[in-house]
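Re: weekly structure request thread

Next one in the queue (626 aa):
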Amino acid sequence: MQAKDSGLKLQEMAARIREMREIIGYTVAQMAEKTGVTEAEYQGVEAAKVDPTFNFLHQCAIAFGVDINQLLEGHSAHLSGYEVTRAGQGPVTAAEEFMTIRNQAAMFQNRLGTPYWVTYKFDKALLDQPIHTTTHAGQEFDIVLKGSMLIRVGDHVERLEEGDSIYYKSSTPHGMIAADERGLTFIAMVMAGADGDSHLGLETIRLKTDKTPLVVQKYVDVIEDDRGCLQHINFKNTEKFNFAYDIVDEIAKKYPEKLALLHISDHFTERRFTFKEISETSNQIANYFLAQGIGRGDKVMLVLKRHYQFWPTILALHKIGAVVIPAVSQLLQHDFSYRFKAADVKALVCTADGDVAHQAELAMEELGATGIIKMIVNGERAGWRSFDKEYVGFSRVFGRRPDSPGGKDPMLMFFTSGTTGYPKMALHSYLYALGHYVTAKYWHQVERDGLHFTISETGWAKASWGKIYGQWMCEGGLFAYDFTRFHAEDILPMFAKYKITTFCAPPTMYRMLIKEDISKYDFSSVHHVTTAGEALNPEVFIQFEKATGLKIHEGFGQTETTCALGNLLGDPLKPGSMGKPIPDYGIDLVDENGNPVPPGEHGEIVVRTPRENPHPGIFIGYYKDE
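Done, posted below.
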């Protein structure tokens, strides 16, 4: 009987979907595209042969402009008189291992507040941990119906029993757990704030619950408050630190099958690389480079867009001690000419895409630089070595030697933007990678088993911020989409499809995303978003938060530094603010005479660091600086 009822409900739901499509005038092809399925799969739903997923129904509801309940139950969700929610019912707003939240007035229009039915399971381990906190708009009233609650509001913790209640401003960090084996059930009434918003969970402080020691902890000591917010950081054992050996190879030994990189090509080909695969491939490429006479101190330029070859290649260069010069694929002949000559480039590893290799050839001809070793990636080109075909013939073993590079040895060189003249060459040591631990851990809030996505070509310094060093020190996976042209409609479905957990992009990209109506896409896997590179328009901040519930955290740094200021874990957000100085970075605000300015006064940002022993992440100096 139940199977018969289930089949009947499926047929009725399929009929409603087909009817709505026909009323609006969408074709099957259009609806398939809007719901992210094939035409055959969509037709299977309308024929009641396929039980649709929740995400499919969610996308249908968005396309039809109705509440999802209208598709599920066949009645209008636009109630304005009264609404009855039966026991145990109401759409689930949030569901985690120990907690469920159900909205008790989801269909009521123009409500002044939102009641939530909240249940928590008891977890004894949580009693020994700081209570997770969250903030959101408006004010909240909680009353305990069953069990006992431990609630934290700001720095205060209260125990509430059945019938007890509490009222507080929701902008104050707050959180609760079940206090004993009875579990916890309570009503949370969230009253709208000044902007009329009464939904939950806009800004969550996510405490570290994974106690697995990170490999990087051998090199970093931190002091955090009870919420996990950074107070101080100290670096240790840095004399021979080499990111390729000490982080990537060590992770590969401990967790060989752990995901390091999920790469999507411009044609949507998916490749997954473990840390073991990345490590072994970097060894092959290191042996390949040595065979070509590339060694310690040599300058090697990489123009690799977002190709998956970039990651093992840069690690290989770190292992042999060659200085990496990342460069973007938009360079023209005169750009290459200046860089080849200024940086004494010995080798170029270049994409076969577009015209960039030709522009590099014109520059070499202009300079008479016939000795530059040329390697082409993702293709073939006359006069160039075939990188992809040749390196695979070399050994996967490349041992670390006593004299291997590390510590204060030069590792990486960025050309600055050149806004006031020719670009300068900012030279970084092997300690630069360590400086990005704060970038990833406390600004990006990368999770150990999460998937981080930074939109940046690998030729920009931003790629070093978000596409390799800090993220792998946090032992998170990297997501890379090797697009040629930015199309928001291609990128937005990837967040849900690949369960991306943290995201960073320049403000320009956020502006392009919100033009696509991001409210119709699923961002439920994303926990934290960040931006840097230019000032973020407050309106973009507001619109993105309105559509996704996620607040964009700004950060600031330069080619010469890692993240120097930022809205870190636990910092209160102010739209338009780049954040506060990174602890122990040496940031000061000074007047025209170099004197610190008092609070409330304008000044120039400076970094105070000993030239002979700069903070990890701050450059050594400008190459060939007179």
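Residues 195-208 have pLDDT under 50 and may be disordered. The longest strand covers residues 139-147.
Next request, please.
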